[in-house]
Amino acid sequence: MFTRIFLVACIFFLLCSEISAKAIEDSSGKTVQLPDSVDHVICSGSGCLRLLTYLQAQDKIVGVDSIETRKRKLDARPYALANPQFKKMPVFGEFRGYDNPERILTLAPQPQVIFKTYSSQMGYDPVELQQKTGIPVVVLNYGNFTHLRPELYKSLRIMGTVLGKENRSEQVISFFEETTTDLDKRTVNVPVDQRPTVYLGGVAFKGPHGFQSTEPAYPPFKFVHARNLAYDKAMSKKELSNSNIAKEKIVAWDPEYLFLDLSTLLLGDKAGGLYELKTDPAYLSLSSVKENRVFGLLPYNLYTKNYGSILANAYYIGKLLYPERFSDVDPDKKADEIYQFLVGKPVFSTMNGLFNNLVFKKVPLK
Question: What CATH number is attached to the domain comprising 276?
């Protein structure tokens, strides 16, 4: 009789345990079993810790990847600038998702969940990582502000559910929607023939690049309805992702406004987009260079897309191209409003100082 009661009690306990545990479907379509309460996590892969910071869950981090502890003269990651404590945390693996399972198992306290971005493109396989560590791995699609915006929002909601930050994830999504809607409303009715032609050079992609590197689907240009010639002239879907545009094409296009992604300064004083604009005869022939219409922007990509900086850049570009439609906007202050909401601190002046105070300014070419 006692044995039977004991067995029934064990079965009941197991059933209750199953009920109390959470299960979630991650961005890869895999169902992941989770503890009922998650207090300790790590973030693996480009941008993963940025999303967690947006959800105000920094206190749950027990380790970081190698990029967070590096000493860099120029760092355009607002989430990292707002959280200097990341630099002193234990390192569990290399950046871009190249994790070290043995190091993960030495973390104290142990992470209960590993979040992972870009897992199908680079880094440690998430299934193998879960098998080797015994820790649930939740795959996230980092998304973007264009065709993958639904994936970005899905990832924020997944992360919010795991962390018990559901309300905050909805606040962040609403913030993105309200901000991009505001930009659209200000500029959508600008007649097509009054929309200036523009080009952005120096965009980083897995490291800094020169002026030919651009983003044809650059969201700030779309948000304020500027004519991005790299997008207008793209002939294939492949050309809509990060692209190197032939110098001859840029000269032939002769855009009315040139923008410089200041991540190109990472290449040093004798290389990169700024140096090229100052010294290359082809670029010196551009009317926007001759007439000093080259403007500095916050880096679009550094450890993947900087969503806050994308929005801040859009307001500056809108103010520059259509000043009467953005008369109520101070771009510097707007940037800090965005950073304050997303990462918890107004870090614009710090970033501007790192990039020689060229952000949201005419770039001196002489």
Answer: 3.40.50.1980
